[in-house]
Each structure stands twice: as C-alpha cells, then as structure tokens.
Amino acid sequence: MYRGLRPPFYPMHIYLKHPVHGTKVAICDLEVEYDERNGWSKYNPDETEVVVVVNELEAKRKYTRRAVAEGV
Among 2, 6, 56, 61, which one is least packed by beta carbons within 10 Å? Predict the structure, then answer.
C-alpha cells in the first residue's frame, strides 16, 4: 500500500513551445488542448533543432573618443 503524498505513478510530460512565450511542460491532455487553442504547439526536446542567430545590429559605443589638443 502506498502511503506517500503523491501517487506511485508519474504523470506524462508533454513539451510545448510558443513563438512569443518560449517553452513549457504540460502534464495532462486537457492542459495541452487548452494551450494548443492559444497558439502553443507540441515538440520533441530530444530532436536537435539548429537555430542560427545573426546579430544584424551594429555595436554602439558608450563613449566617443575625442582627440585632446595639447597646449590649449
């Protein structure tokens, strides 16, 4: 007989991702159905997904260097 606080089985884990909110783990089918209606989609974390991030922004300098005239 099990006397712990939780049942002896582990719930299923379903991995979801959203283009704005990132990733999350759902633990029941009802949660997955609700999330899929709100833009989430299932994915498999074991499959490697290659994402190439290209930084197109120029590095901004915090300070500008000015030549100091000597003898002024």
Answer: 56
